[in-house]
Automatic annotation (TrEMBL):
Spans annotated as Disordered: 323-372
Domain (FAD/NAD(P)-binding): residue spans on this chain: 7-304
UniProt biased composition (Acidic residues): 326-340
Gene3D superfamilies named among the record's database cross-references: FAD/NAD(P)-binding domain
Keywords noted in UniProt: Flavoprotein, Oxidoreductase
Protein name: NAD(P)/FAD-dependent oxidoreductase
InterPro entries per the UniProt record, alphabetical: FAD/NAD-bd_sf (IPR036188), FAD/NAD-binding_dom (IPR023753), Ferredoxin-NADP_redctase_2 (IPR050097)
Top-rank taxon, per record: Archaea
UniProt GO MF annotations: oxidoreductase activity
PANTHER family per record: THIOREDOXIN REDUCTASE 1-RELATED-RELATED
Amino acid sequence: MTDHLEYEVVVIGGGPAGLTTALYATRLGHRTAVFEKEGGRHARVSHVHNLLGVSENVSGEQLAIHAVDQLEHYGGDFFPDAVESVSRLETDPDDGSDTDGPRFRLESTHATVDARRVVFATGFRDRSPDVPELERFTGRGLHYCLHCDAYTLGDGSVFVLGHTESAAHVAMSMLNFTADVDLLLDDREPEWDEETQRQLEAHPVDVIDTAVVSAYADEHVADDERPWIGGLELADGTQREYLGGFAMYGSAYNADLATELGCELREDGAIAVDEARETSVDGVYAVGDVTHGQNQTTIAIGDGAYAGLALHKDLRPFPKSTAELEASEADSSGDGDDLEVPGSAADLRAQMRRVRELETHPGLRGPSPGRE
Ligand SMILES: Cc1cc2nc3c(=O)[nH]c(=O)nc-3n(C[C@H](O)[C@H](O)[C@H](O)COP(=O)(O)OP(=O)(O)OC[C@H]3O[C@@H](n4cnc5c(N)ncnc54)[C@H](O)[C@@H]3O)c2cc1C
């Protein structure tokens, strides 16, 4: 027995990946909790693009608020708290404590909980450009994701800030959207190879090595609280007008807790997972941006669904395999009457009945019934 809260599934990270895993786990009948410290990439999205049925007037933060509400509607728990450590609990085959597989203890800033399965959905951090005044235009002319925002900048004057291979490739890729692309080195030495250099020379991208000293707002955009970028000022005193651009300084995966637990990483620092989104540590899963560079909301959501389904298969007893049935037939009548069904606890089944009697969750149209 433990005096801590016990969950079947604990998800670390309340972005699209973690909340989707938690929603699946909850609606598949598992006692589930999400821990979310403030921040994350979803919270920086001012307009969510490429998400079917979701208006671009919706921000990443609004989407997460609705998703938490949806999760709680079905009985999942949400803790606005940072997880500080995850450790594996010792189980002992002699006292039967290992029959359900691995167990974990999570310490957050304000709580301690135990879990049978852990999901890392911790995302990554974009490295910001070192240009004064620029960061306030995040989502309003300063972007990090070509596939999300190239369309927004189509046919405009565009900058790419950076000096790496990926900065050079994003600059050349932007030529699919506009003829006016500057690659701003900000007084740093290029780090791309000779082949990329040859490509760049053959593409109409202006490579500018002068330092970038400041950013200014577009005075024609009336919204003072959320101004759009007007351009950048360079160290030689010139001002270059831009509709917007991308900062390409790489990212840092939030994989420290997973590493401490023994999860293998890929060469680039992402958490390595298999097709079911399980890591190299039994009972530990990882989803979303922390597992790859395909940083898209829909892909994070898809990862979350994969993990949710895999967790369910891993945790629930039915259907029994023929080997399990044969083993149980050895000391039973063999007609199935000895199987203990249903396979989930009484309080979880009661929750399913309760939700069935409520109105359907309204999704983005408003709060859940009874939660107005
Ligand atoms: C400016 C910007 C605009 C974007 N626009 C779009 C777009 O229009 N369309 C699109 O498809 N994609 C867009 N993206 C990409 C999209 O936001 C990400 O791909 C998506 O948010 C990834 O989801 P995730 O759940 O994996 O990670 P995140 O959204 O980063 O969530 C991870 C969460 O884990 C939490 N966390 C980390 N460590 C801990 C801990 N120890 N304890 C508790 N919580 C923890 C963080 O606080 C964070 O909230 C954009 C990204 C940025 C930065």
